[in-house]
Design a protein that fits this description.
The structure holds two protein chains of two kinds. Chain A is of the alpha+beta class. Chain A folds into two domains: about 80 residues, Roll (Ubiquitin-like (UB roll)), CATH 3.10.20; about 60 residues, DNA polymerase, domain 1. Chain A has six helices and five strands; from the N terminus they run H-E-E-H-E-E-E-H-H-H-H. Chain A has a five-stranded mixed beta sheet with strand order 2-1-5-3-4, sandwiched between helices. In chain A, helix 3 crosses helix 6. The longest helix of chain A has 14 residues. Chain A is globular and about 50 Å long. Chain B is an alpha+beta fold. Chain B has three domains: about 90 residues, Aldehyde oxidase/xanthine dehydrogenase, a/b hammerhead (Aldehyde Oxidoreductase, domain 3, Alpha-Beta Complex), CATH 3.90.1170.50; about 325 residues, Aldehyde oxidase/xanthine dehydrogenase, molybdopterin binding domain (Aldehyde Oxidoreductase, domain 4), CATH 3.30.365.10; about 170 residues, Aldehyde oxidase/xanthine dehydrogenase, molybdopterin binding domain (Aldehyde Oxidoreductase, domain 4, 2-Layer Sandwich), CATH 3.30.365.10. In chain B, the strands form nine sheets. Chain B has a seven-stranded mixed beta sheet with strand order 3-4-1-13-10-11-12, with helices on both faces. In chain B, a hairpin with a 2-residue loop joins strand 24 and strand 25. The two termini of chain B are about 55 Å apart. The chains are: A alpha+beta, B alpha+beta. Chains A and B meet through helix 1, helix 3, helix 4, helix 5 and helix 6 of A and helix 1, strand 1, helix 3, strand 5 and helix 9 of B.
């Protein structure tokens, strides 16, 4: 039986009087399936939010999956799990990446920064987080961690972006509530350019 | 009126979780021993399960069980069941497997031997209405009547052809209402416009897929879900999972978007609870983006015909509206009547008739989506207003002002009253702020291949109700706990409505704590968080609860310090004797005294008229402080209207058919502004929704196989940063409504309707007044028009390429 519903498989399925399952899920939650012969390096040391985290990672596992379901860093959201929405945006060596579209094994030797790594130990918010609060930028909030990480990444390479530059830089982060204007206001505030 | 809290910005407490990643949405919760469920969904648009062999799946290591429709309570069609043996759309859940992890569950699904018998299906309402057209369900093809039920209706072939060709419909319409003398009012019209139109359905596509986790503990059922509403969910979800309301613990601290699709508990929400009961362990059901498209609801589509008459002075004299609704395969509807209602109030026609045919199709289930009905008709009727203005030689703002509803406005079939309306003032405000007089001159201006279009649009939705409860508690430490049963949809109204209680209690906001998000936190009975109702409804409920607390503070003070309750007043978190300042109690001291006095003061006795949900909430906090609790029985003299006006400038490239929105202003006519930043976010966010509806978002189904072609974000195409202007302005009329203690009315839905209408008008304006009469207006539609070619899709094409 097919596990991925698409036109080609559906037509094949109809011909065979078979049936398809709904979709591929968010990936397996535990170490299900056969262990590949080359999987000797499953136990990885990852630099996440300035700390070294040891974690057992499957070869096909995405970084979003590792962060959320093995390290408990659920601030990284999964809106689509296919690189369309940006809710899972994290910084890899200071560059924004979709964590749903990156294998965890490819994060070896790199620094990973998630939304949980921004706030200081004493509770002080990162300036970008504070700007998002001040501008009431989020609505439902589900895309907000991704928007914040994309903003942090932008400001590291362009500390004083124009509004138009910010708009383009964040365009890979979808907001179904349509809070774009408030997010851009927050970017400008975080960069010291609030009007 | 000067307020301490109303009309001022504040920081809602939940926003810190949103910016730090600490906010927990349904999928972020875990429980010891939790297993994972996966769904097997239908690959056919309509079928019957003929054979189901689960043995191989159940024999697998790590598989805990399978749930089918046969294991669940039966559901009468066309209500949506949790699982089904007669799937009626591609993606309809047939069964679920629970296993140690999702991969194992999916592997088990692949070993299930299932055979489906294909049944007739349709993805186009007018195809189903043909004489031998397919029925979407075995029970029939329409959903109508009182009470509504599935029936069968087929037109004559000539009636179908006439409707598709734009002729005046004569075929039977199960729903019909009218007021006024239609014929006489058309006779008095100087201009009569007749148009046929189509507005396609499209998916809600909330950012958060509707995942659910459930478990049972000591006879209680715990559900972690994603809903717009909080307390309102309890009496509906409890029977769905098979538990008494008092034994349901419902947690929905955050909701990653709903837009109407998560007002009520939805069928799949009950699946983990049933599975958890069967397996004796917690069950998590994570929903994928593709599944969210299938079961996440969509807007009702319209195929329609409209005739509108205008008097020589610009007044709308008569409207005749006929709408075939695409309801999807399950219970839905109401959009057409809402469309009629919106026309009745926005333009105040002397006479109006609505006829509607609610047709079932084998597309994704439909439900309320931001301005259900009102926003579809806004997209169609507002460009007709422009056309009438052109024929009558009137300015486009002026014709709307001529028809603008005021506080004597009437609406709907019964021509009932409104609580207040001030659209003329709002139009004046918007026209001035946007500099309409100057910008309108840019209409049709050409720069290379780009043409400027100027648009104005209006949106409406009923925006308030009454009869819900408020609950406040003052504890001996002096803290004021504002219990809010309103859901956390992202509007922050769960918090902003409690400001009305703080206002009545004359207290510092720093002394207030908002209690919300989980039923175990003792939350009062609250309205659905939808329909733009919350700000009106729950400022009232919070106000009456606070008044109850104030009365009790005075009575407690009189009991403790002597005199009558009427001798006392409040301010600065103190209750004091008006003439003897030394006789005073802090709120904390009064709370301690209230606990000592017991009875109604401490919540040990409650009013009879409050809801059971509230009674249980009060029982949970009784004896911990001074309790103010009351049902909102304040007067409400009519429908509470929410209005918005959008002004937009676009540049349309006549070589590519693409457009750019240059400038946008939204004006809210929604009573007193309670929370300025929150209102701004709603007006702007609604604008983005309107842009999407006008130009990009639609269902696409393969009519041959019933296959959906756009199940992801990219294909459904909600607007991105690059589809909207980088600055969106807003304003508000800020005129208090007399039936709300702080003057507030709702806004969320008209904020979208005005935007879709404004963009439709601007597109028409850029092309010399051509009416597209369809949403979305995609570049191919524009290029076909410019080239003088017929539309690329057939007449009134809906759900198709």
């Amino acid at each position: 039986m097919n596990v991925k519903l698409n036109r080609r498989r559906f037509i094949k399925g109809v011909i065979a009087s078979g049936i398809a399952a709904g979709t591929i899920g968010h990936g397996n939650a535990a170490a299900g399936g056969a262990r590949p012969a080359e999987a000797v390096d499953r136990l990885l040391s990852l630099n996440i939010n300035g700390r070294t985290r040891r974690v057992d990672v499957l070869p096909q596992e995405t970084l979003a999956h590792t962060l959320r379901y093995k390290l408990g860093l659920t601030g990284t959201k999964l809106g689509c799990n296919r690189g369309e929405c940006g809710a899972c945006t994290v910084l890899i060596d200071d560059v924004p990446h979709y964590a749903c579209s990156m294998l965890t094994h490819n994060a070896r030797g790199k620094t990973v920064l998630t939304v949980e790594g921004l706030q200081q130990a004493d509770g002080t918010l990162h300036p970008v987080q504070q700007a998002f609060v001040d501008e009431l930028a989020p609505q439902c909030g589900f895309c907000t961690p991704g928007q914040i990480m994309a903003t942090v990444g932008l400001l590291r390479v362009n500390p004083k972006p124009t509004r138009e530059q910010a708009r383009h830089s964040l365009s890979g982060n979808l907001c179904r509530c349509g809070a774009y204007d408030h997010y851009l206001n927050a970017v400008m505030r975080a960069s010291g350019q609030a009007t | 009126m000067t307020y301490q809290h109303i009309g001022k910005d504040f920081t809602p407490p939940d926003i810190f979780g949103k910016v730090t990643g600490k906010a927990k949405y349904a999928e972020d919760f875990t429980a010891d021993g939790m297993c994972y469920a996966r769904l097997l969904v239908s690959p056919m648009p309509h079928a019957r399960v003929k054979k189901l062999d689960l043995k191989a799946a159940l024999a697998m290591d790590g598989v805990f069980g399978v749930l089918t429709a046969d294991n669940l309570p039966p559901v009468e069609a066309p209500n949506g069941g949790i699982l089904t043996n007669e799937p009626v759309f591609i993606g309809d859940p047939i069964l679920a497997v629970a296993a140690v992890d999702e991969k194992t569950a999916e592997d088990a699904i692949s070993r299930i031997d299932i055979e489906l018998e294909p049944l007739p299906f349709t993805v186009n309402p007018t195809d189903s209405l043909r004489p031998a057209g397919p029925n979407a369900r075995e029970e029939g093809n329409i959903y109508a009547g009182s009470p509504p039920q599935v029936g069968e209706l087929h037109w004559r072939q000539d009636e179908v052809e006439r409707f598709l060709a734009g002729g005046q419909p004569s075929a039977e319409a199960p729903i019909e209402w009218q007021y006024g003398d239609l014929e006489a009012s058309f006779d008095n019209a100087a201009v009569i416009l007749t148009e046929s139109f189509v507005t396609t359905g499209y998916a809600h596509m909330s950012m958060e897929p509707r995942s659910v986790m459930s478990y049972w503990e000591n006879g209680k059922c715990f559900v972690y879900g994603s809903t717009q509403s909080q307390s309102f969910i309890i009496p509906f979800l409890a029977p769905m999972v098979g538990v008494a309301p008092e034994n349901l613990v419902y947690v929905s601290e955050y909701c990653g978007g709903g837009f109407g699709s998560k007002i009520f508990p939805y069928p799949i929400m009950a699946l983990p609870a049933h599975f958890a009961k069967k397996l004796g362990r917690p069950v998590m059901l994570r929903i994928t983006r593709e599944e969210e498209y299938y079961i996440g609801s969509a807007r009702v589509g319209f195929q329609g015909w409209i005739k509108a008459g205008f008097a020589a002075d610009g007044r709308v004299s008569a409207v005749d509206l006929y709408i075939v609704q695409d309801l999807g395969p399950k219970r839905a509807g109401g959009d057409a009547s809402s469309a009629g209602g919106a026309v009745s109030i926005l333009y105040q026609p002397e006479a109006l008739r609505l006829r509607s045919v609610p047709v079932l199709t084998n597309t994704t289930p439909r439900g309320a989506q931001r301005g259900p009905g009102q926003n579809q008709i806004a997209a169609i009727f507002e460009p007709m207003m422009d056309k009438a203005a052109q024929e009558l030689g009137l300015d486009r703002v002026a014709i709307r002002r001529i028809n603008a509803p005021d506080s004597n406005a009437k609406l709907n079939a019964d021509q009932g009253p409104v609580t207040s309306a001030h659209m003329a003032e709002a139009l004046d405000l918007g026209a001035k702020r946007w500099n309409w007089a100057e910008k309108a001159k840019r209409s049709g201006r050409r720069k290379g291949s780009k043409v400027t279009g100027i648009g104005i649009g209006q949106g409406y939705h009923a925006a308030g109700t009454s009869g819900f409860d408020g609950l406040v508690r003052i504890t001996p430490d002096g803290k004021i706990h504002l219990h809010s049963g309103v859901g956390n949809l992202g509007t922050y109204s769960y918090a902003s409505t409690t400001r009305a209680a703080a206002e009545a209690l004359k207290c510092d906001w720093s002394q207030c704590e908002i209690v919300h998000g989980r039923s175990a936190a003792h939350l009062p009975w609250s309205s659905y968080q939808a329909g733009s109702v919350t700000i009106f409804t729950h400022t009232r409920a919070n106000h009456v609860a606070a008044l109850d607390a104030v009365a009790k503070l005075k009575e407690v003070a009189a009991a403790a310090l002597g005199g009558q309750a009427g001798d006392y007043d409040i301010d600065g978190q103190r209750v004091f004797h008006r003439n003897r300042a030394s006789r005073a109690l802090s709120y904390g001291e009064a709370a301690a005294k209230a606990i000592e006095m017991g009875g109604k003061y401490s919540g040990d006795e409650v009013p009879e008229d409050i809801h059971d949900v509230t009674k249980r909430a009060v029982a949970g906090i009784a004896g911990t402080g001074l309790v103010g609790v009351a049902k909102d029985s304040l007067p409400m003299r009519g429908t509470v209207p929410g209005f918005a006006i959008g002004f937009v400038e676009i540049e349309l490239d006549v070589e590519t058919g693409k457009h750019e929105i240059i400038d946008y202003l939204a004006v809210g006519e929604c009573g007193t502004v309670v929370h300025p930043l929150g209102l701004a976010n709603q007006l702007r966010g609604g604008g983005v929704w309107g842009f999407g509806m006008a130009t990009t978002e639609r269902h696409v189904y393969d009519p041959q196989n019933g296959l959906p072609a756009n199940v992801g974000f990219y294909q459904c195409k909600p607007p991105t940063y690059l589809d909207v202007p980088s600055n969106m302005d807003w304003a508000a009329a800020d005129i208090p409504d007399p039936d709300n203690p702080v003057g507030a009315r709702g806004i969320g839905e008209p904020a979208m309707g005005c935007a879709v209408a404004a963009v439709m008008c601007a597109l028409s304006d850029a092309l010399g007044g051509h009416l597209f009469n369809r949403t979305p207006v995609t570049p191919d539609v524009i290029l076909s028009h410019i080239a003088g070619l017929p539309p690329t899709s057939g007449p009134l094409a809906i759900n198709t390429f």
